[in-house]
Amino acid sequence: MKKTLKIVVNGLEEAVDERTTVARLVEVHGEGDVHLIVERNGRFVHPGTYESTRVEPGDEFELFHPDFGG
Amino acid sequence: MTDATQDPQGPSLSPGERERYRRQIIIPEIGEHGQERLKAARVSVIGLGGLGSVSATCLAAAGIGHLRAVDCDRVEPGNLNRQFLHWTPDLGRPKADSAREKLSALNPEIEVETVRLEVTAETVEEAVGDSHLIVDATDNIATRRVLNRYAVEHRIPLVFGGVAGFGGMVLTVAPGDSPCLECLFPGPDRTEDREIGVAGPLPGVAASLQALEAIKLILGAGSPLLGRLLLFRSLDMTFREVLVDRDPDCPVCGPARRRT
User: Fold this and answer.
1) What is the DSSP letter of B11?
2) Hey, is the C-beta of A32 within 8 angstroms of any chain B C-beta?
3) Confidence check on the interface: ipTM exceeds 0.90, yes or no
4) How many CB atoms lie within 10 A of CB A17?
5) A–B: how many Cβ contacts below 8 A?
6) Which of A57, B86, B151, B251 sits at 20 to 30 Å (Cα–Cα) from B103?
């Protein structure tokens, strides 16, 4: 039986597979933005680590688009 | 190497300058010595749109002695809700000309140098000139990445600011000591297929913060936004930070890059 864990993404609680990676979260929530900013518990997650970073119980993520206008 | 935090023996202030900058000079963190450092500073504001209009104005008024303002565009009607250096009679004029006129009128004590130039990897050296510090007031990630790379390679501090809708972000890059923009945005350049909406007062918020960061770096005062991405969301009127580490694999500022 697959184990799930609870995390918070953009303020909403989600139950996700325990093997979920940040890459998977970005795939689901990122809307294809190559410059999406992923914040995990107040810290920036480097895009190069998305594949290797698994979510942990209670993690709080904010995924948002950067502001590049001027 | 240029470094905004170096301590140039600033030129002394004239009586007129002492009076003009009196409300800054009485701040303990500035004082007459700090004001002299501002006078000795050379700062480039790249982009004279919503962000650059306000940051250049703030820096000129604060007494940055050598202000270089760079933009290749002309003033359009759609600029006027937020680009406060450019007024209705300026429509059709180069933004660089409009900016020079306003900034010089605001503060004749400083040198204002304007450059009409599109910033690319080929032209960035000409854009930045001999500046001690870069204010990134551009409006797209491609130009921002070019500026960031140049700043890191030449160890010139850079203050990034960006806005969209009702929100914005600010980050300061101290090459060698903090993450750079490439650490955050290593992806390929994103092409904007639509205009970015910007509430009129919004760029002024980010740009004022950028100008403050620039002044702090020149003075060596306080704690700049190194590794702290400042986000503000004006609909909720919240300001908060995201902590950012350097990316050890960063192709611009990472160790592998530095060895080459």
Assistant:
1) P
2) no
3) yes
4) 13
5) 77
6) B151
